[in-house]
Design brief:
With about 230 residues, the chain is of the alpha/beta class. The protein contains nine helices and six strands. The protein has a six-stranded parallel beta sheet with strand order 3-2-1-4-5-6, sandwiched between helices. The two termini are about 25 Å apart.
Length: about 230
């Protein structure tokens, strides 16, 4: 990737679109860590699932993922124990290994400089979202953040996108969701919001088909200042 050039702040005549961001796989390199924490928690419960199966489901909420890999409803007693244990394992064994993708903080700084309304719309639990945002280094540039703890149903359902839009006070037509998985893409579609894809979460362009634009990572989006052209 070419080195980033110095930004110049612009103030367009028309308001820029609001940007909603996923976090896992979009701002921080955490998708593998989440997959392994699920595998570990399931194994403790006597359920053995291979990495590839779980990895392709990362990006949807635990309420969706657990039934897909185990047949257990997330609201069942056994399901609740596994979900709780997965979160404990993730925070104790994997969170410390998670790193921000290149350009995450700098991208949010540029968006703030340009006056772009911005929020987080994540399927992460609130107690996991906060440390992930700290790793990304974007907290001081965030206006609002929503997590799976704020809504009844996680991605690919659009609830968390709707919640973020409500907090920003903008209609779907005035926003884009930036994410890394087909579940983000589906949530955006169902919310009536345009989708911008990042490859850094491990999904191919074909799997993100329908995106209005696709970038390698936050640094690649920053290098283009693409948001200035979005209306």
């Amino acid at each position: 990737m070419p080195p980033l050039t110095k930004r110049t702040t612009t103030r367009p005549d028309r308001p820029l679109l609001a940007l909603l961001f996923d976090v896992d796989g979009t701002l921080v390199d955490s998708n593998d860590a989440h997959a392994w924490s699920w595998i570990d928690a399931l194994r403790e419960a006597g359920i053995h699932v291979d990495f590839a199966t779980v990895r392709r489901l990362i990006g949807m909420g635990g309420d969706k993922l657990l039934p897909r890999v185990s047949g257990l409803p997330a609201e069942s007693e056994a399901g609740k124990r596994i979900v709780k244990r997965r979160s404990e394992i993730f925070r104790a064994a994997y969170l410390g290994r998670v790193r921000a993708f290149p350009g995450a903080r700098e991208l949010f700084e540029a968006l703030a400089d340009d006056g772009v309304p911005r929020a987080v719309a994540s399927s992460a639990r609130q107690d996991e979202l906060e440390p992930l945002l700290a790793i990304a280094g974007v907290n001081d540039f965030l206006e609002h953040k929503t997590s799976s703890s704020d809504v009844e149903s996680s991605k690919p359902d659009p609830d968390v996108v709707h919640a973020a839009l409500d907090r920003l006070g903008v209609p779907p037509s005035s926003a884009r969701l930036v994410g890394d998985t087909p579940y983000d893409l589906e949530a955006a579609r169902r919310a009536g919001v345009g989708f911008v894809g990042f490859r850094c979460g491990g999904w191919s362009d074909a799997e993100l088909a329908g995106a209005l634009a696709i970038f390698d990572d936050p640094a690649a989006m920053l290098a283009t200042c693409a948001w200035r052209a979005w209306r």
